[in-house]
Specification:
The protein has 398 residues and is of the alpha+beta class. Helix content is 37%, strand content 12%. The strands form 2 sheets. Strands 3-5-4-9-10-8-6-7 form an 8-stranded mixed sheet, sandwiched between helices. A two-stranded antiparallel sheet has the order 1-2. GO terms for molecular function: hydrolase activity. Keywords: Hydrolase.
Length: 398
């Protein structure tokens, strides 16, 4: 977890995911870096320092919290990697490092027995996802995990759902929605170009493509973020107190905003979350004249790859954790500042949105070459479908 208090204290038992990998014959070669406490989307801590983005070590962010896994994927240093994800911690670093990833719904991949700074926080459950430079490696490892039936002897929290191969019907057009905002920010020009590349390819292949609204993003964000720190981050504070380590400014913001919450208030937030989950399912099924959605294409961030110390909040990714939807990341292109010129906006979604576009305009050259990726979002427990659509879109981009 990137905390001094936990350093050099190996556990007596492996986590469930480690047991599963070893049962399948996998060789674990290393652990990779994370932010201190896994609390923010920049991978830096007092133990190991900052992990740098292989595509621009000087300017661009590696993302987080699984930023070390994103970097090693970019460098082709592993067949695949595992990262925890409670709000985008797999999807975000995968996208910033031009890698593929899959964030499953709760219960498909084992999570029991791993260290957490928020044990007992189950309002938005942590899942484990897979990152890799190679799509086939990611698909293969996910299939192997599910076919091992981990619910039987690895993790009681896994669900007894078999691997279901998904085949795209040749003559059945997909219904694919495109979203360029997350209720807080709108995407910068490289991401607009990336979305349009995918949209044109799908449309030319005969599929139904259309713009989607960011409905429910703000209402979900308003109840989701307070739940993350409902105990006032007590466990994390105790770990920091044990070591006396300096507190990173980004962590300090999270600690300062986290307040111990009465159970009645937490339950009200959970009621609101569950209501939005039901409303979004209805929106998924009825929001398009073409019928039920097959997938939503949306970036992981407003930026191609965020600058160091300039990562905005990420409803682009955290929304799908709150809904418990399956989501992958898919590399599309790279930022080209000669093409991706800043655009003049007449209005902004928020002050954060204004800052995003000001940052892009004022630091344009620093974004050169930054990976441009998108998420493929499918409904709950539709990982096989999500991977199949991801592979199909990737083939269209080749």
């Amino acid at each position: 977890m990137g905390l001094i208090a936990l350093a050099c204290k190996p556990k007596k038992e492996n986590a469930a995911i480690v047991n599963l990998i070893q049962k399948l014959g996998g060789i674990i070669i290393c652990k990779t870096n994370t932010p201190a406490g896994l609390l923010f989307t920049e991978t830096t801590n007092m133990l190991w320092g900052r992990t740098l983005n292989p595509y621009s070590r000087k300017y661009l962010n590696v993302g987080g919290s699984s930023g070390g896994e994103g970097a090693i994927a970019a460098l082709k240093g592993s067949c695949f990697g595992i990262g925890s994800d409670i709000g985008g911690s797999v999807k975000h670093p995968a996208a910033l490092n031009n890698a593929y990833s899959i964030k499953p719904s709760v219960g498909r991949i084992p999570t029991y027995g791993t260290q957490s700074g928020q044990p007992g926080q189950e309002s938005i459950k942590t899942v484990y996802g897979i990152l890799s430079h190679y799509l086939d490696n990611m698909t293969y490892s996910f299939k192997a995990f599910i076919e091992a039936e981990p619910y039987k002897d690895i993790d009681a929290g896994c669900i007894p759902l078999s691997y279901r191969k998904y085949t795209l019907e040749k003559h059945q057009p997909l219904n694919i929605a495109f979203l360029d905002r997350d209720g807080l920010t709108s995407v910068t020009p490289p991401l607009i170009r990336g979305l349009n590349i995918v949209k044109r390819k799908l449309k030319a292949a005969g599929h139904n493509v259309f713009d989607w609204n960011d409905a429910y993003f703000k209402s979900m964000t308003d109840c989701m973020y307070p739940m993350y720190g409902a105990n006032g981050l007590t466990t994390l504070k105790e770990l920091l107190k044990q070591s006396g380590e300096p507190i990173d400014s980004r962590m300090q913001k999270s600690i300062a905003s986290a307040k111990v919450m009465p159970v009645s208030r937490l339950w009200n937030y959970q009621i609101q979350r569950t209501k939005i989950v039901q409303q979004y399912l209805n929106y998924w099924n009825t929001g398009s004249s073409n019928g039920r959605l097959d997938a939503i294409i949306i970036p992981t961030s407003a930026f191609p790859a965020c600058l160091l110390n300039k990562v905005p909040p990420q409803p682009y990714t955290s929304m799908w954790n709150a809904l418990d939807y399956s989501a992958s990341t898919l590399p599309v292109t790279r930022c080209n500042v000669k093409i991706d010129r800043p655009v003049k906006k007449d209005s902004y979604l928020s002050d954060v949105d204004r800052d995003v576009h000001d940052t892009y305009r004022e630091n344009l050259i620093k974004f050169e070459g930054g990976p441009v990726s998108v998420q493929v979002v499918c409904n709950r427990l539709e990982e096989e479908k999500c991977l199949a659509i991801t592979k199909y879109i990737s083939s269209l981009l080749d």
